[in-house]
From TrEMBL:
Gene3D superfamilies: NAD(P)-binding Rossmann-like Domain
Protein name per Swiss-Prot or TrEMBL: Short-chain dehydrogenase
Keyword Mitochondrion: no
Keyword Oxidoreductase (UniProt): yes
Source organism of the structure: Nocardia jinanensis
Amino acid sequence: MTCQVVLVTGAAGGIGAATARLLAERGSDIVLVDRDASALESVSAAVAAAGARALVRAADVTDEHAVAAAFAAAYEQFDRVDGLVNSAATMISTPLIDTTVAEWNSVLSVNITGTFLACREFVRRLRATGRPGAIVNLSSISGSVALPNQAAYCASKGAVAQLSRQIAVEQAPHGIRCNVVSPGSVATDQLATYLAAQPDPAAARTDLYAAHPIGRIGEADEIAAGIAFLLGADAGFVTGADLAMDGGYTSV
């Protein structure tokens, strides 16, 4: 594992938590960042059980001072952060004409502004020390295909993918790689909430499975494996890539 210390946002559950556990098992110390400090405790315990060190930081990724403080704490404890995984995200399922400005701003604030703030702080600190590093940002199939009732989410995830390409090109001369993982539907609490909000949740779930040519939805551990690859030495020549982990969804 190239990255000795990895900061993971949205680490309290889903893909973020799965990524933290897998990276710990592969030898990385983990900085766990999420708004839900209590939920981070179980993830922290899993990291410790894997023999790695964990630093828990309750922080809102939309707050630039909180993001900067999380990195400062990480440097104080570990003297470095080599890898960054931006997994923090939120979504709504609302028709465009019913989407309020507050809902729009809330989704974009977490999904794209939060990603920007963490990437900016990460890059600033690496550039100051001259160390290389790797970023993996979580986009989505919603970043490349249009889905009903997901105007804000689709816009935010498309922006994450484009921001990541820009970072990859701008920071490549400084030894900083930036890549994207774009999952299809994954068995997480966020997906469960989305399905529960549908008029017919059972039918929505059936349709979701059918939309993925592989015949099922993904598991958080599978996405974590893709993230770990992009952070690692085997991906040393990979930057600006968008790894679709969607069971064939975007190939139809």
